[in-house]
Amino acid sequence: MTFEEILHHRRSVRHYKNLPIDSEKVKHCIELATLAPNSSNMQLWEFYHITSPETLKELSVACLHQESATTAQQMVVFVTRQDFYKKRASKMIELETQNILKNSPEEKQEKRIKRWQLYYGKVIPFLYSRCLGILGMVRKALVNIVGLFRATPYQVSENDVRVVVHKTCALAAQTFMLAMANESYDTCPMEGFDSRKVKRILNLPLGAEINMVVSCGIREERGVWGDRMRVPFDDVYRTI
């Protein structure tokens, strides 16, 4: 399929055929999902590929017995890991240092390395750290002062940063679903679930959060609820 055909083919499927799907193909689609864009390349995510019938059954209960879950052949749970920010930032310092040594003129390398060390060594830890909302209030106070003198991002509260982490994880989920459509497999992103049960089933730590659960399979004809509807394009399109 062309990319446009993939977009038209992908639908949220509510009922799957009782036909197995290739776990290796699903795994490859998850690998492709890691190529999704994400904020500061921090990659604060994990992907749980569920193939065990017992675990699928448990997750279908946690997903409120939706047919998308009860008929799924496999599932992928997209998980945010904001608690990984320190080791991800450390990894990015290593990566950017190697990029600079490989691609930058020698006379500019030291300055550029220091810039990335400042960003990933100081700014990112300050931005992603959490403490009962207190650090977010400190960050908000600082950017409001800075904003008096120059353009600055204001979305720096602890909840704002949490939203950023979830947005970038959702980009990975969308990439995964498009990759699955390219394999002629179907998916349904589910946000209706008991997050505590899902975390307990997957044995996730406190710092992990469930972004969405994506069921996988091959669609039944009745699995797609009618024609796709989108509001008129002119209602949402603006040119400036």
As for the number of domains, it is 2
Compressed to H and E, one letter per element, the order equals HHEHHEHHHHEHEH
Structure classification: alpha+beta
Number of strands: 4
Instruction: Give the overall pLDDT as a whole number.
Output: 97
Largest sheet: 4 strands, antiparallel
CATH topology of the largest domain: NADH Oxidase
| CATH H-level superfamily title of the largest domain | NADH Oxidase
What is the gyration radius calculated from CA atoms? Answer: 21 Å
Please give the share of residues in helix: 40-55%
Low-confidence stretches: none
What's the architecture of the largest domain, going by CATH?
3-Layer(aba) Sandwich
Gross morphology is globular
Describe the overall structure.
Helices cover 52% and strands 11% of the residues. With 240 residues, the protein is α+β, with helices and mostly antiparallel strands. The protein has two domains: 3-80 and 172-236, 3-Layer(aba) Sandwich (NADH Oxidase); 85-159, no CATH class. The protein has a four-stranded antiparallel beta sheet with strand order 1-2-4-3, sandwiched between helices. α5 packs antiparallel against α6 (106-128). The longest helix has 25 residues, at 158-182. It is globular, with a radius of gyration of 21 Å. The relative contact order is 0.22. The model has no long low-confidence stretch (mean pLDDT 97).
